[in-house]
Amino acid sequence: MARYTNNRVLALDIIRGKWLLTGAAARKLLPAARSFLSREPVHGTYDEPLRLSFKAQDGSVVSIDSDQDAVLSQPYVLIVPVQGALTKYDNCFGTSTMEVADVLDQFRDDGNVIGFILDFDSPGGSVNAVMPLIQSIRRIQDAGKPIISHCDLAASAAYWIAAQTDLIVMDNELSEVGSVGVYATIIDDRENKATGERRLEIYAPESEDKNRSYRDALEGDFSKLEKELSEIALAFRAAVQDGRPKLDPETPGALTGAMFTAEKAVDLKMADTVGDLEACVDIVCIRSGRY
């Protein structure tokens, strides 16, 4: 299994990229992001390959790391964890969606894999992490295999992805989904407090609009950045409405960034039911038509 490590892109995403995260998660990740940018050790990182579980309806389980080969002898449901902050490439914060997409593509045509469960416990992630996984989900759906989401926490970018699967199952009554919204946090590091130095950026006169929204925001004018974020928010809303057609767009909070626990989420059609992983396996087995 390929590992998509690209620290330069991750650093740029942290500094200037757009993220879809719950507010609390963003604040908690900020110290780790600063350590990463300073090339200091980042504590509590996710350095291990994805742990994959193949579970049959009779209860038998095969577990492997994503860099190992699975030997399957009967029909199984593949359970793929989607945990922590999501980035496109390998990272020290959570999950690479490129790696998850690779796993789904690898087993999509395996005759012994009858369906897929994405096991979410994620506050969201970077905007560019969303599409690689959604595209892989669509390839599975085009292949006629079921793929559902099991969610303890699926917020912002994670919910965007989960909403594109066939079904959303909340793990328990305190599980949460939502945060359909976009915002940006800018760290103004132009002045080095230790040395008194200040970083200057010089732009050619022919490039007056290059990075304009970022530069204006540092000076207190957020209008251009708000417009960019609005474009992402509208795409996010449209994707959720497309994936969850029974969701009433006029529901207060549903498409404006609110979070909802299981009972409310099911009531609002943001999720379908409540159940553990065993229930999810049964659902996929039934939907596959193999049992």
SSE topology sketch:
Blueprint (H helix, E strand, L loop, with lengths): L6 H10 L2 E3 L1 H15 L13 E5 L5 E5 L10 E8 L1 E3 L6 E3 H12 L4 E10 L1 E3 L3 H13 L4 E9 L1 H6 L5 E3 L5 E3 L33 H7 L4 H21 L15 E3 H6 L5 E2 L2 H12 L3
Parallel strand pairs: 4-7, 5-6, 7-9, 9-10, 9-11, 10-13
Antiparallel strand pairs: 1-8, 2-3, 2-4, 11-12
Short synopsis of the structure:
With 291 residues, this protein is α/β, with parallel strands linked by helices. 35% of the residues lie in helices and 21% in strands.
Keywords:
291 residues, alpha/beta, 2-enoyl-CoA Hydratase, Chain A, domain 1, two-stranded antiparallel ribbon, 9 helices, 35% helix, globular
Describe the structure.
The two termini are 30 Å apart. This protein has helices at 7-16, 23-37, 97-108, 130-142, 157-162, 212-218, 223-243, 262-267, 277-288, and strands at residues 19-21, 51-55, 61-65, 76-83, 85-87, 94-96, 113-122, 124-126, 147-155, 168-170, 176-178, 259-261, 273-274. A hairpin with a 5-residue loop joins strand 2 and strand 3. The protein contains nine helices and 13 strands. The chain has 291 residues and is α/β, with parallel strands linked by helices. The chain has one domain (7-288): Alpha-Beta Complex (2-enoyl-CoA Hydratase, Chain A, domain 1). The strands form three sheets. Strands 2, 3, 4, 7, 9, 10, 11, 12 and 13 form a nine-stranded mixed beta sheet that branches.
